[in-house]
Design a protein that fits this description.
homodimer; 123 residues; mainly alpha; Arc Repressor Mutant, subunit A; 3-stranded antiparallel sheet; 66% helix; DNA-binding; DNA binding (chains A, B)
DNA sequence: AGACATTCAATGCGTGCGCATGTACGTTCT
DNA sequence: AGAACGTACATGCGCACGCATTGAATGTCT
């Protein structure tokens, strides 16, 4: 392969790293905890947040997901009893998402998996 | 946000970079040339390859795609007349994929788009 | 040569994604 | 206050993906 624009080199490097790690992470989280990478990220932000709750809109900003994808990630988590939706009094368009006890517990376990996978596959 | 494990910091950094660039790139390629990022990558490998042809199996190794996704990327490109499939004499399980003139021409245009997007969004 | 394992590619299937739209609420301007 | 515009979330839709399976060709071992 002839030498490429350094821009392309670094893009390929980035793509390669991301793909490898994301794939491993997704598989591990799915296999051990039944979570998508996105699902885990949602849980993670919630646990980090004040009172384990956050508005969907804030999740959208933090995560690298579209609004619809975020909404559906919350759907999935809710269906598993890991989070709850709640009315947002101050702005009734908004929806709070709150991690349940079960959600926090699962997050703690999944965090171990995440760290293990990152430790192994992130150079 | 409290400080995190440096492993998590770099993972988030990687995820963030990738998502931003990939999103922009995908949109630009789709809008201007009707190509997926993956489609473009396939074309790119073909153009790089000896005689603009490569076996699907080799594409799978190079690209960060499953075998089925690669096969379907080739389907799409073939449907647009950008590549052709051809028998592989030496191993009749295999399939060669060959970029057509149209494919090479489109690749050249798309490359400009890629470089522009990378230049703008890749730090 | 014959039986068994392996490899390459295509395809059925289920899933998560983004885009576009719908609906309800909020904000602004006159 | 009322109209027009903007924002938050849910949902219909089509698409690309990965996994599992299939089918054909190859390779291996006895």
């Amino acid at each position: 392969m002839k030498t490429k624009d350094p821009l392309i080199e670094s893009w390929r490097e980035l793509l390669s790293q991301y793909s490898r790690v994301a794939h491993e992470l997704d598989r591990a989280l799915q296999a051990r905890h039944g979570l998508t990478m996105s699902d885990y990220e949602v849980l993670d932000r919630l646990v980090d947040a004040e009172g384990c709750k956050s508005r969907i809109h804030d999740l959208v900003v933090d995560l690298h997901l579209s609004q619809s994808a975020s909404s559906r990630a919350v759907d999935r988590l809710e269906k598993c009893g890991l989070v709850q939706r709640a009315m947002c009094e101050s702005d009734r368009r908004g929806v709070f998402v709150i991690a349940t006890d079960k959600g926090r517990a699962l997050h703690e376990q999944a965090r171990v998996t995440q760290l293990a996978v990152l430790g192994e596959h992130l150079v």
